[in-house]
Amino acid sequence: MTNEPNARPLLQIRDLTISIREENGKYTAVDGVSYDVLPGEILGVVGESGCGKTVTNLAIMGLLPDVLSVTGGKILFHSASLPGGIDLVRCTQEQRRNIDGNEISMIYQEPLTSLNPLLRIGRQVGESLRIHHPELPEAEVESRVLKSLAEVGLPDPAAITKMFPHQLSGGMRQRVMIAMATICRPKLMIADEPTTALDVTVQAQVLRLLKHISRKHGMSIIFISHDLAVIDQICDRVIVMYAGRIAESAPVETIMRTPLHEYTKGLLRSIPLPSMKGADLPAIKGHVPSTKECREPCPFAPRCPKATEICRQQVPPRVEPAAGHVIYCHHV
């Protein structure tokens, strides 16, 4: 991560609200979320399924499905080519085409469904270069493809360029996705649970690879996960989301050692440990409310052991008990 204490954020999300439209009404999926991503930082976004992690980051990429739309707030992106910044919510289609894959890239949980099964790997990895840098001769594109595949640790890159996705293992396909996402040297990568479908050994290799690439190229990463144990291995800072809102955010060491929000504590208790062999895993009672359910002013109140009447009457305040540690709760 950048060592400049006052470095300008690469990405600034401000009061982002995302709504879902259905036949019987409109519901809120993400409710007034705000956070920054610093240059070179690996930011973890964690929470159970349905908390709004992926939806928030699909909005950054402009990939929200038709039933979802940004109904409030801004997503401000800054880079060397955009010194004044640009609001990704309101940018033109041409601006979006110039940014996606070039300035901002994304890798997904299941690479087999993200790769084109009918195109060879070399063609797919070089596609972003051909789109964003049409001035490059084909020989240069092919050379950069080989370098990108080698950088992500794939053996015999020349042979792999001639293969199809189904001929590679899950770990190799995920490395191909990382090569595709980084070949244009973007300033920001969004990684949406990229290790969930991999076995533990390959998962650790991919995490080390992402961290190495981030440090080598000064690339920021938003790492989405439901697993705090994985977040602890790779991230500098963590945002804990619940029911479309931020519950707590802090440096990863703080979240793992001295969490303050009851939801964060519950997620940590749910991490399996060797000493728990044969025992039932601790679980947070209840479930994440759907967008259609009526939510309390504090949406975690129905599951929180410390909830009182004020939690059901007033939205939790923003409290900063220490520099860089923010919690939204009435009972800090």
Give a description of the structure.
By secondary structure, the protein is α/β, with parallel strands linked by helices. Helices cover 30% and strands 26% of the residues. It has twelve helices and twelve strands. It has helices at 53-61, 93-99, 111-114, 121-125, 127-132, 138-151, 157-160, 170-182, 200-217, 228-234, 252-257, 262-269; strands at residues 11-22, 25-37, 42-46, 68-79, 82-87, 104-107, 188-192, 220-225, 237-242, 245-251, 318-322, 325-328. The strands form two sheets. The chain has an eight-stranded mixed β-sheet with strand order 6-7-8-3-9-10-12-11, with helices on both faces. Strands 2-1-4-5 form a four-stranded antiparallel β-sheet, covered by helices on one side. It is globular and about 65 Å long.
The ordered string of helix (H) and strand (E) elements is EEEHEEHEHHHHHHEHEHEEHHEE
Number of strands: 12
Q: Order of strands across the widest beta sheet?
A: 6-7-8-3-9-10-12-11
Q: Report Rg.
A: 21 Å
Mean pLDDT: 92
Residue runs with pLDDT of under 50 for 5 or more positions: none
Secondary structure tally, helices: 12
Structural class: alpha/beta
Give the fraction of residues assigned to helices.
25-40%
Give a quick account of the main beta sheet: strands, pairing sense, barrel closure: 8 strands, mixed
Keywords:
four-stranded antiparallel β-sheet; 12 helices; 332 residues; alpha/beta; eight-stranded mixed β-sheet; 30% helix
